[in-house]
Target: LacI family transcriptional regulator
Amino acid sequence: MHDVAARAAVSVKTVSNVINGYPYIRETTRAKVEAAIAELGYHVNMSARNLRRGRTGLIGLAVPELSLPYFAELADSVIRAAEDRGMTVLIEQTGAVREREIEVVSGQRRQFTDGLIYSPLALGPDDIGELAVVDYPLVLLGERIFGGPADHVTMSNVEAARAATEHLLAQGRRRIAVVGAHAGEMVGSAALRLQGYQRALEDAGIAVDPALVAEAGLWHRATGAEAMARLLDDGVQLDAVFGLNDALALGALHELHRRRVDVPGDVAVIGFDDIEETAYSAPTLSTVHPGREEIARTAVDLLLARIEDPDDDRPFQQVIADFSIIARESTLGEGTPAGH
Amino acid sequence: MHDVAARAAVSVKTVSNVINGYPYIRETTRAKVEAAIAELGYHVNMSARNLRRGRTGLIGLAVPELSLPYFAELADSVIRAAEDRGMTVLIEQTGAVREREIEVVSGQRRQFTDGLIYSPLALGPDDIGELAVVDYPLVLLGERIFGGPADHVTMSNVEAARAATEHLLAQGRRRIAVVGAHAGEMVGSAALRLQGYQRALEDAGIAVDPALVAEAGLWHRATGAEAMARLLDDGVQLDAVFGLNDALALGALHELHRRRVDVPGDVAVIGFDDIEETAYSAPTLSTVHPGREEIARTAVDLLLARIEDPDDDRPFQQVIADFSIIARESTLGEGTPAGH
DNA sequence: CTGAAAGCGCTTACAG
DNA sequence: CTGAAAGCGCTTACAG
Model:
């Protein structure tokens, strides 16, 4: 910067003004400075600027893993939303491991960022104390922790799961299995979505049969396939499956296909998340569209508001994203291969 | 840091020594300092450390989009590999747009990082001049640009594509379509994989039929489905499809399923990338395993070597990752649903 | 519109 | 083993 100033025969202040778009600069001065910058190939040193400004322009995004399509697509949306607002995203993979999720809120890497968008999967209400150390802007995603020192963006888990179940009921299904339950858990997406499922059944006057509820700790394709296999091996009668997320539903679909069970002829399947893959599976998968873009945009906006005005002590907000049911072949049956 | 020093009654140098693990410190001194750090809730300011050290500990990773599963899985692998070496990854999405790919190598955001792992999709040999500005460690991924001021990690595109085609030939297929070609392009994965396809056919004494080669600019599921539809609409006779990546192959599979074409009974399908989804599609998709983990690890290692020794002027390296063919239902036919 | 100067919070020769 | 001091490259009151 000093070299640029020397070459342009101005002070460093003037160079700084040009770089930062300070408006009251004579055109000739600006041109001189810009020429010097170009000739010297100068670019600002971010570390120095950040040190001086006390901000980095980086926000953290902590998710379980990018190899899970839902989180990859969420990360994509968050990166775009942040970019629109001039921020850069630093992704942190926690692997849904409790210690790593705790480490993220106070680790070294946190120091790089002005704030954090945080999507824990292993923490529970007992861990809320871990968030007490947070003295920076934080936005929580998901349903693991409520009441932390953070704004919160969630899905309509109960309502959306109820709508998904009602969609299956509307197709005449009565023996609806659930894949992905977490026994004994009172918080988290699993518990809330199961609740929605139960309410829909109750509203329809159908008793909830515990035999229809299959566990799956991790919500991956593999665990969905295993849970589906268990249901079938146990001889549970069923005419529909509600995968508590798309990966589970796709795993269940895979297992049904492997056993030559016709979908949706014999068993209808619905998922949750509307990842891109669901529009291309065979059959295509009905699912819940959870408003991922809206979630990403809202989270970034809430975080930025706190970053830009750290002294603002308005109460923490909770925003619930809209959802919709996407009906595809796995519940409607159009496009089922001939021969089925 | 001064506060910590004051509280521990030592100099800031000593505090710095403790933080950075300098070995020759009296145990009592270390304990005093650590107590002070804990009491004050002190943590180092990254911007200041980076400014002083001239390094940030961040490396950039520029990919087209995270919503493409291959790149999501690649990012996952790169983040893990970098973490093992104490580095943090900053992901940049270019959308496979030429201007954005150019911007990435010299943009503002570049200033945050010590080096860049760069996977362009739109640049070509004519753009090699754009890399002339690079005066920092750079590792290239993919086949768009060779000879830049960078180490380079690639796949065995030609050999792997040839092996994929030979796998189809070994199943008795003779009319093998290709989905995803880029007409007129002489560089890039499309051209190289098409070359491998052609060689396998020539070796088998089969003439290459241009009618079997379908274009698809972007390698997404949607474009794969469209290309497949075009082949079928044109009445091209075929008994196999080689999708130049998995997304294309999954799109083709989707279109075949939609039209009640039996896979692999009537048409065998193979892809390229071995994304996780291929193990769960119906039918499961045969594919080329391109050594993604190895690519990620090698790229991070090469980059770090340059970062750690910027004066080292050993010649730029090119590393080619191993591949293997993964045979699944879409070419072997086990597990095909009854009724087909 | 522009200049001279302080200071953001570290690390690291240099001394002892 | 530890201290005093310079300096990394910016931005920003303060002056003019």
